[in-house]
Write the structure tokens for this entry.
Amino acid sequence: NAGVTQTPKFRVLKTGQSMTLLCAQDMNHEYMYWYRQDPGMGLRLIHYSVGEGTTAKGEVPDGYNVSRLKKQNFLLGLESAAPSQTSVYFCASHMLQQETQYFGPGTRLLVL
Amino acid sequence: LAKTTQPISMDSYEGQEVNITCSHNNIATNDYITWYQQFPSQGPRFIIQGYKTKVTNEVASLFIPADRKSSTLSLPRVSLSDTAVYYCLVGTLSGGYNKLIFGAGTRLAVHP
């Protein structure tokens, strides 16, 4: 099992550009999450999904959109990137009724 | 949501036992206590989880007093590779949404 993978690993954007971050998991997990982590801080929840076709807002959803068209994939979109969205983005997943999250390796995003 | 308080940083030496205490005064009945470890440029990794009393696995022990208002992560005989940030989380992933909050964590530095 590859676990949780994220694409790309690193990306540089200009202000106003758009991009999509991909999270994939091969563990048949129902729940998937997108977090962002700023320097010296903990993770903050952006959006999450409790199953295919469903998404919900987390703590800091503004400026982001998500989609869960397939159970194994969770996409995070930035429609118009801003410098404030410079961060490291982590995806996580877990099974129903499981209390442990499995995290991906992260995507480092720099918005100029 | 249960708020957690843990030391910002700790220093230790190889071979010593390290205890990191986390306070969570408003823990709810259904909440679990979970510790994650994060190395630079990596996603958090599950270490240990408990609900009450003591839990031990191959890497750590978790001590939880009867009132559950605090918990202590114990790392026996640390090595340089244990240098990382340790997060204490209190909450539950059940119920259809994420009730966990990552704080700033405890930065553990292990010295030769």
User: Anything to note?
Assistant: The radius of gyration of chain A is 13 Å. Chain A has one domain: 4-107. The CA atoms of residues 4 and 25 of chain A lie 4 Å apart.
